[in-house]
């Protein structure tokens, strides 16, 4: 079955870095664009970054531009989110996602907490 499994979240101090990973299975990963979303407590889920199926084009939420980098390795069925210069306002559950023909699929999420 289709599955997305995130990892790499944790507690980090402001200014620190984390790299999130998302391993996909159950569909042809290289055919589909991938995205990272996040949801903070009491807020709506928002798109943070997206990457096309070949990795040739990326898009970012304005507030993370220059700090976050999305990338993918189609040989490993994995999408990454490198997060640098983290701020307390980046605290959220981060989800990877893809819009397959039948439905949008989501991982279970990984918690990122930025705090001193």
Q: How would you explain this protein's 3D organization?
A:
The structure is a single chain. The protein is 0% helix and 51% strand. By secondary structure, the protein is mostly beta strands. Strands 2, 4, 5, 6, 9, 10 and 11 form a seven-stranded mixed β-sheet that branches. It has a four-stranded antiparallel β-sheet with strand order 1-3-8-7, with no helix packed on it. Strand 9 and strand 10 form a beta hairpin. The termini are far apart.
Summarize, please.
The chain has 116 residues and is mostly beta strands.
Which key terms come to mind for this protein?
116 residues; mainly beta; seven-stranded mixed β-sheet; four-stranded antiparallel β-sheet
Largest sheet: 7 strands, mixed
**How would you spell out the order of helices and strands?**
EEEEEEEEEEE
SS content category: mainly beta
Computed CA radius of gyration, to the nearest angstrom: 13 Å
Fraction of residues in β-strands: over 45%
Give the integer mean of the pLDDT values.
97
SS element count, helices = 0
Number of DSSP E strands: 11
Blueprint of the fold:
Elements: E1 3-7, E2 10-12, E3 18-25, E4 34-39, E5 46-51, E6 58-60, E7 68-73, E8 78-83, E9 92-99, E10 104-106, E11 110-114
Parallel strand pairs: 2-11
Antiparallel strand pairs: 1-3, 3-8, 4-5, 4-9, 5-6, 7-8, 9-10, 9-11
């Amino acid at each position: 079955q289709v599955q997305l499994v995130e990892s790499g979240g944790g507690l980090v101090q402001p200014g620190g870095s984390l790299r999130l990973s998302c391993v996909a299975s159950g569909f042809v990963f290289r055919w589909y664009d991938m995205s990272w979303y996040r949801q903070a407590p009491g807020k709506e889920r928002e798109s943070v970054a997206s990457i096309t199926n070949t990795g040739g084009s990326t898009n970012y939420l304005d507030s993370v531009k220059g700090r976050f980098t999305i990338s993918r390795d189609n040989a490993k069925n994995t999408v990454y989110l490198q997060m640098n210069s983290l701020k307390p306002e980046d605290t959220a559950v981060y989800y990877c996602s893809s819009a397959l023909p039948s439905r949008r699929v989501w991982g279970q999420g990984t918690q990122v907490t930025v705090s001193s």
